[in-house]
Amino acid sequence: MVMKCFHFTNGEGRDEGEDVSGGGGVVSRMSSKVTWTRSLSVASSSADTRRSEFDSESTRDFASAASFCEFLTQRRANDLRVFTFAELKSATRGFSRALLIGEGGFGCVYRGAVDVSDEVNGGRYSKLDVAIKQLNRHGFQGHKEWINEVNFLGVVNHPNLVRLIGYCAEDDERGIQRLLVYELMRNKSLEDRLLARTPLPLPPLPWVTRLSIAQDAARGLAYLHEEMDFQLIFRDFKTSNILLDDDFNAKLSDFGLARQGPPEGFGHVSTAVVGTVGYTAPEYVQTGRLTAKSDVWSFGVVLYELVTGRRALERNLPRSEQKLLEWVRPYISDSKKFHLIVDPRLEGQYCLKSARKLASLANKCLMKNPKPRPKMSEVVEMLGNIISETSSQYESISQPIGENEDVKEESEVETEESTKQGHNYLKKVFEIKEIISLRNRSVGKLDWRNWTPGLVRTW
User: Is residue 387 located within the same domain as residue 415?
Assistant: First the structure.
């Protein structure tokens, strides 16, 4: 099932950029009807002089491709490369379906290879694998989303944000051509690795890798919220927008719905409600008031997806299990049942204590009142503590036991541990054949050179 982006409605909607409020004050307000249609637009049209130029210029009209390129050139803080349409058409072998790696309301994403200058080798050109997003040429809203991505990815720079290499903006006989060229993320998205149900499923993500991905994504959001000259609210944080590189480092992608946060001294931005069903903060859906804490809510949802291996909304399950947050509620407060919600594909190879702590952190992010939700920088710190504790537990488990330890003492320790309710983390145990072999030996010591640890489930 592919999760789509929608406009939400609660009777009345708001146009983008309509007001910026602090406390209860409203600068300006217009209301307009919004419908449940796929969202492709978030570029602001605010004329408020207190807003950044990123919002006010993103819906600007361009009489020609030349004037449009001039506008983009002024924004190339990251020295974006300008590609020709012919270059990108050649790079994707004429936008071959065989190279298609993604598809959505914005258009299609293809894998390709472009020539880049290698300064280390004397300026010689070499091939670089990239992901090329081609905007659907029908509709101005997609065009605004495209501009939004260039606006923000052209100036942000962080290891946990996907890198925009360049763009193409041309008009030809077929119409407007708008493309974006990104670094290629070979391990696809977190959704693909964690939630995809394919005929040939990918190996499950190890528990420690899940924690690392969560921390990487949190760092990306913390940078957007707290570390730039202006605040940026991602507004569509979900597993499909978290991409994984060769080493499973996570990077946020798809800034089409991103929106600049309120200026200093103001509490929120009132705007049309867009996002993905299942991830959007309830107060944002109900009021249209957008804050960075809306992203924090979405992060909490993703944390539960990492714990459970389930989607935020899964229509194919029984009705009582379709909404993830409702399904986990009875289990998270019962220590005897908590292990029942943990992703079964982990097959017990995880630390139950850290899983509970991750769920506790998710609950903090999902507080009904947005104000007490933690900032993303605080989330990064808490995830760091969970990872450190988990790593130390794994290290203590994997340490070899001295050759002079009594086998009976080791067996008693393992028996005591196995009686603990819901323990699913890795434990070294004797293989059955080793135990039988030991019983037949006259010496009560274990020859550690001739055994291998096995895994057992204890629930």
Answer: no
Whether 245 is a known active-site residue: answer no
pTM of structure: 0.73
Q: What token pair was written down for 392?
A: 């130390």
Residues of the chain whose pLDDT is less than 50? 9-18, 23-68, 71-73, 75-76, 401, 403-459
Instruction: For residue 366, give every residue at least 6 positions away whose Cβ sits within 8 Å of its Cβ, in sequence order, or none.
Output: 297, 300, 301, 325, 373
**pLDDT tens per residue across span 223-241:** 999 998 889 999 999 999 9
DSSP string, 277-299: TTTS-HHHHHH-EE-HHHHHHHH
Calpha distance 234→257 (Å, rounded): 7
What is the C-alpha separation between 393 and 254, in angstroms, rounded? 36
- Binding residue positions: 133
Pair (103, 148) in one structural domain: yes
CA distance 180 to 253: 12
CA distance 292 to 281: 10
- Tell me the pairing of strands 268-270 and 19-21: antiparallel
pLDDT (tens digit per residue) in 318-366: 999 999 999 999 999 898 999 999 999 999 999 999 999 999 999 999 9
Binding residues for ATP: 133
Give the domain-ending residue among 382, 399, 416.
399
Residues 299 and 421 grouped into a single domain: no
- 102 with 240, same domain: the answer is no
Residues 205, 170 within the same domain: no
Catalytic residue among 55, 236, 254, 343: 236
Report if residue 27 sits inside a domain: no
| C-beta separation of 308 from 324 below 8 A | yes
Written as one string, the DSSP assignment of 113-172 is EEEEEEGGGTTEEEEEEEEEEEE-SS-HHHHHHHHHHHHHHTT---TTBPPEEEEEEEEE
Task: State both tokens at 87.
Answer: 């270059």
Torsion angle, CA of 282/285/286/292, rounded to 10 degrees? 70
Residue 166 in contact with residue 85, Cβ under 8 Å?
no
SS3 67: helix
Q: Domain for residue 242, yes or no?
A: yes
pLDDT at 368: 95
Model pLDDT for residues 374-423, shown as the tens digit of each residue:
999 999 999 999 999 998 877 666 555 454 444 444 444 444 443 443 44
